[in-house]
């Protein structure tokens, strides 16, 4: 084999591409809705967002079922999560990991300015799932920051910095919008998964009683977060706006459907035809749908 051939088949560029492909496969297997929104991103940010969400998905699976099905105790799952966090932070510093998903994330983190200040809170929230079953208002807010808001901030770093030589800090209005959108996504999912979280995982993220007013208050908070996030979306780079608008509108639709039911039904979903309509609307450049806060 020639030297040129060997370099082309074993070099870092090939390894980077294999890592990106691995991250894309993880996302394709786990989330059709996310895959739809991701396809609306431009080619500049798209692979980096996939890299972020692939790592998030792997960490989530450690604490949410597959590890337990494999016979792992919470203590062992915690050790594996610690190892994943350590490998992620080390890979960001050194620029390489033998774990393909971690390697893909690290490349994105190094290029887009995602540092330990965002990575550590995420893993802290994941670790909470291994021991905390009931949340009050304070622990809910801390959990949502680490599990969802910082993921929104990671994506914002990608939106602003992918393809640039020197990452910059996004403006405050975009930072607030990213945090609000992440929080809204998480609270919507808490309401959608309320029965599963309680009966299967034994967790209560929202601390809701049987009083309808408490559930309505969560939905009011979601609407407020979605409304504030919608005002920030037009300031995003053009190749990101359509995807974020589609995601925003999908969760706004879920919030409407959650408000129309009493919480006792099966997991609330948006029909595929409605998803397609929302995606088409975003693709055509419409502003995010109005949400009454």
UniProtKB/TrEMBL annotation:
InterPro entries in the record? Isoprenoid_synthase_dom_sf (IPR008949), Squ/phyt_synthse (IPR002060)
Q: From what superkingdom does this record's organism come?
A: Bacteria
**Membrane-spanning segments:** none
Please state what the protein is called.
Answer: Squalene/phytoene synthase family protein
Q: What taxonomic classification does the UniProt entry list for its organism?
A: Bacteria, Bacillati, Actinomycetota, Actinomycetes, Micrococcales
